[in-house]
Specification:
Oligomer: single chain
Structural class: alpha+beta
Distance between the termini: 26 Å
CATH class of the largest domain: Alpha Beta
Largest sheet: 6 strands, mixed
CATH topology of the largest domain: Deoxyribonuclease I, Chain A
Radius of gyration: 24 Å
Strand content: 25-35%
Shape: elongated
Helix content: 10-25%
Number of helices: 8
Mean pLDDT: 90
Low-confidence stretches: 1-19
CATH superfamily of the largest domain: Endonuclease/exonuclease/phosphatase
Number of domains: 2
């Protein structure tokens, strides 16, 4: 993972002031909450808010107190400041930052308790020269995360973007080109997978900030991709402090349409009521966030007609963890038994004819160490138990 933690206070951070801003909790403990936020030249002493210490204190307080599960940030503009922020958040969040040379980088923070990163699938998205130009030399950042816990795991690709700014013809055309490149990439590389695209798109979804032209993201809307943030566009919300436009957006794959909780998109445009001078001393953008059904992502679906066995049933699976032989004692006849990987892949499937009805012994010696599930069915009931193979 590309990350260095340095304990730096080069711009006079007053860490004792982190609790100064009373931002509210926005995250939901039972859902998956995702957000994007342009933090305006964060850490750059020559651009953006002039008081770097105040900006840092407010950004850290907002990230800590809103308690969002996955936070995409744009305009991370100083590695030392990024390292300091990441160190301050390290007890809760893991992180990854863009590796390109352009100053305004993107990064992602995610809760360690909810996700593991898949490093081989985490990268700056490769672009050709014209695509890189259209993205203002800021290729989208792709971070691949795998869920932790529950009765199954799932994988979500998070793409963090920062498109070309300004309401002129050249910038508009570059956003059109970048949107085309994004669509090509996700349909060639992420087809059938779950992904969420977050970031500063620098334009709106109803009509463009340039001359009220057709939105540069018409190609994605015409392809029926869901933008949770369009709910905000449709009611006249703005994510930029100095305009009336929604220019920060969230898009999800069609495979997440049934998991997105419709009507839950929000823009934290009342942040100034918790932080005096927010748009001048912290950021000229407001965070945008939305909610997804975490349970659907992490719970194995029980087939129709089956019910989960009550937890107080007399079913004993031991030892756990196990290195070789696992024993299964039940208070009822077993119809079938399956061993599944944590991803839900079936690696063993035994029917009633192969079982000793109530007492089963399985040799797991040849299984790779890791987490597995043993699934037992009894008539119209099913029992699922997580086991650890040493």
């Amino acid at each position: 993972m590309f990350r260095k933690f340095l304990f730096l206070v080069g711009f006079g951070l007053n860490l004792a002031c982190v609790e100064a801003q009373n931002f509210p909790k926005l995250g939901n403990d039972t859902l998956l909450d995702v957000a994007c936020w342009n933090i305006e030249w964060f850490g750059d002493v020559s651009n953006g808010p002039t008081d770097e210490g105040t900006q840092y204190t407010n950004v850290l307080a907002l990230l800590n107190k809103t308690d969002i599960d996955v936070f995409a940030l744009e305009e991370m503009s100083n590695y030392n400041t990024y390292n300091t922020l990441s160190t301050a958040l390290a007890s809760k969040y893991d992180t990854y930052i863009s590796t390109f040379s352009q100053t305004q980088k993107m990064c992602l923070y995610w809760k360690k308790s909810m996700f593991n990163v898949i490093g081989t699938e985490t990268k700056d998205i490769p672009l050709n020269s014209s695509e890189n130009y259209n993205f203002a030399s800021r290729p989208p950042l792709q971070v691949c995360l795998q869920t932790i816990g529950g009765t199954k795991t799932d994988t979500i690709y998070f793409l963090v973007m920062h498109m070309k700014a300004y309401a002129d013809l050249d910038s508009y055309n570059r956003r059109v080109g970048a949107s085309a490149a994004l669509k090509t990439y996700i349909e060639a590389n992420l087809k059938g997978k779950k992904f969420i695209v977050l970031g500063d798109w620098n334009d709106d979804l109803d009509q463009s900030t340039y001359n009220a032209a057709v939105t540069p993201f018409k190609n994605l809307l015409d392809a029926n991709y869901t933008f949770p943030s369009k709910e905000l566009t449709d009611i006249g919300k703005s994510s930029y402090a100095f305009s009336v436009n929604m220019i920060d957006h969230i898009l999800n794959s069609k495979t997440l349409d049934s998991i997105y909780l419709k009507g839950t998109a929000h823009v934290f445009d009342n942040a100034p009521s918790y932080c005096t001078g927010f748009s001048n001393n912290t950021s000229d953008h407001y965070p945008v966030y939305a909610f997804y059904d975490w349970k659907k992502l992490t719970t194995r679906v029980i087939p129709a007609g089956l019910e989960m066995v009550a937890s107080n049933s007399a079913i004993n699976i031991f030892p756990n963890p196990v290195s070789s032989i696992v024993s299964i004692n039940c208070d009822r006849d077993v119809n079938s038994l399956r061993i599944l990987t944590i991803q839900g892949k079936i690696i063993s499937n035994l029917s009633k004819e192969n079982l000793d009805m109530k007492d089963v012994q399985l040799n797991l010696t040849e299984l790779e160490p890791g987490i597995y599930f043993i699934e037992l069915t009894f008539g119209n009931s099913v029992y699922l138990k997580k086991i650890v193979k040493n």
